[in-house]
Amino acid sequence: STVTETLGFQTEVKQLLQLMIHSLYSNKEIFLRELISNASDAADKLRFEAIAKPELYETDPELRIRIALDKDARTVTISDNGIGMSRDEAIEHLGTIAKSGTRAFFDQLTGDDKQDANLIGQFGVGFYSAFIVADKVVVESRRAGLPEGEGVRWASKGQGEFSVSAVSKPARGTEIVLHLKAGDDDFLDDWRVKGVVRKYSDHISIPIEMKKGNGYGENGEVVVSNEFEAVNQASALWTRSKGEISDEQYTEFYKHVAHDFTEPLAWSHARVEGRQEYTELLYLPSRAPFDLYERERKQGVKLYVRRVFIMEDTEKLMPHYLRFVRGVIDSNDLPLNVSREILQESRDIDTIRAGCVKKVLGLLEDLSAKQADKYATFWREFGQVLKEGVGEDFSNKERIAKLLRFSTTASDEQAVSLADYVGRMKDGQDKVYYITADTLAAAKHSPHLEVFRKKGIEVLLLTDRVDEWLAAHLTEFDAKPLVSVAKGELDLGKLEDEADKAAQQQAEEAARPVIAKLKDVLGDKVAEVRATTRLTDSPACLVSPEHGMSSHLERLLKSAGQ
Ligand code: ADP
Ligand code: MG
Q1: Whose CA is closest to 312, among 322, 301, 304, 324?
Q2: What are the start-end ranges of the H helices in 309-409?
Q3: How many CA atoms lie within 13 A of 328 on its CB side?
Q4: Distance (Å, rounded) from C-alpha 107 to C-alpha 312?
Q5: 66 pairs with which residues across the strands?
Q6: pLDDT tens digits, residue range 352-394?
Q7: Is 83 close to ligand 1, i.e. is its CB under 6 Å away?
Q8: What pLDDT shows up at residue 188?
């Protein structure tokens, strides 16, 4: 039919468009990266669906992306022969934002262009970045497998609404026509656009084609022929050898796979041989994504089998406590038709996963040993997540424990490793002492620390939400038990000298009448009342039973309604 339907953008899209146009004008060229990235994803999706249905290739099996510039019409056209979109998919994908963490993102916006530009960089702009340079965008698409007549035409000026209508589209895939805004004519320049493509998209594994240069015109401009040629190397980046890949290429590839705008912090790239043969290229982001704590998050590590994209999975390829890792794993041995169900059962994937976990931990160890600044950044962004690993990954518990960093009575910053702590232990000290609290200030001012301060013994200050869980699972380090200073009868072992013991006895004697009175008054509210020498400034403190819940955990559970 020729009926055109006009629909409104989701409110968040309108906000995003506004924000983008205002805050990204200084980095306009990224629209090319985003649209090429989408075209490449569309090729991956087609390849995957075609494993089961080869007829989806129709008569056009060579996947590619094309960019055409039209100086007269002032348009840039990006087309691909990937999976394409049906009408419903176009409405859904080009009219809403499906990302998890969207709410959190919009909640953080301040209205200040500079700050928001920074945030939007982390959030990612995707398809809508077309409107940075275009005042009109027309998308024509046909999903692979649908008849020619079931193409869709989507058009918008990037304000409140878009239109959709049916079109006939003989070629499968998606074509996006950008009508450039006045002043953005540099994107009609062949040389300029080729430069941008090389800069951002050289890692894309299928050819990105543009018309071949054919000498220069009167004004020194490039004259193009009608023949297309690839502008990029067109081989999957991870299949190249390390020596051939520049840091810039690794970085751009990261931005593509991770859908992130910020630079990665570090990466590990290796070809692994043995029981399973695979290549891994895994990245640590430099910033936590908005959805790090969302259950529904979809992003993770991508699984390829012999260069064919199979799936993106958040659990089967990386354990939960390494959910911030991004990148690809490309297996030589898994079957191409591997499904999610097969993966659930697969011992092979377990082997690959275990190998990749070791690589990531190795990368972290390397950073912590050689690049303290980067490790500090990592710890700030992801340390709390890594702590989950102590209870989650029994086989790597010790390696993870070594990577932990803490605030202590000697350092407000979470910068002290357990090895540092042990190295500074007092003569005769055989335990690692810690205290849990809601905040650093509460921890530091706890009366439980008085005796430790007096004796100059360092105490770990555990104040993150996950720390109770950590303390429950990390019961010793380097054969030294971790002991809460707020639990049970404080046993300072050899740190206690004869004078302390005598003082304790004396205190008990002296306090006997007071204690009897207190027990009387407090009755069932307490299990016991004891005299102590662990306090130097405070008259009294609450102590949890040795094997009971800590008072901090009790408060956490109460606030969670338990
Ligand atoms: P993201 O790539 O992070 O999913 P985008 O805003 O870049 O977000 O794209 C939104 C969605 O639009 C994509 O997930 C995809 O479903 C669809 N899409 C965009 N471009 C294409 C394309 N060239 N071919 C097929 N689908 C596309
Ligand atoms: Mg995208």
Answers
A1: 301
A2: 340-345, 347-370, 372-392, 397-403
A3: 24
A4: 28
A5: 79, 209
A6: 999 999 999 999 999 999 999 999 999 999 999 999 999 999 9
A7: yes
A8: 96
Q: Rounded CA gap, 391 and 412, in Å? A: 25
Supply the pTM of this predicted model.
0.79
Candidate of 99, 127, 175 to mutate for ligand 1, largest count of ligand atoms within 8 Å of Cβ = 127
- Identify the nearest ligand to the CA of 16 by its number: 1
Confidence of residue 546 (pLDDT cuts 50, 70, 90): low
Which residue has the least CA distance to atom 7 on ligand 1? 126
Q: Whose CA is nearest to atom 14 of ligand 1?
A: 93
The answer to whether the CB of 94 falls within 8 A of the CB of 140 is: no
DSSP helix/strand/coil, 471: helix
- Atom of ligand 1 lying closest to residue 37 CA: 2
Q: Which residues of 281-320 are buried (b: 16+ CB within 10 A; e: fewer)?
A: bbbbbbbebbbbeeeebebbbbbbbeeebbbbbeebbbbe
With residue 409 as reference, give the H or E element that holds it: none
Which pLDDT score is estimated for 414? 95
Contact between 236 and 73 (Cβ < 8 Å): no
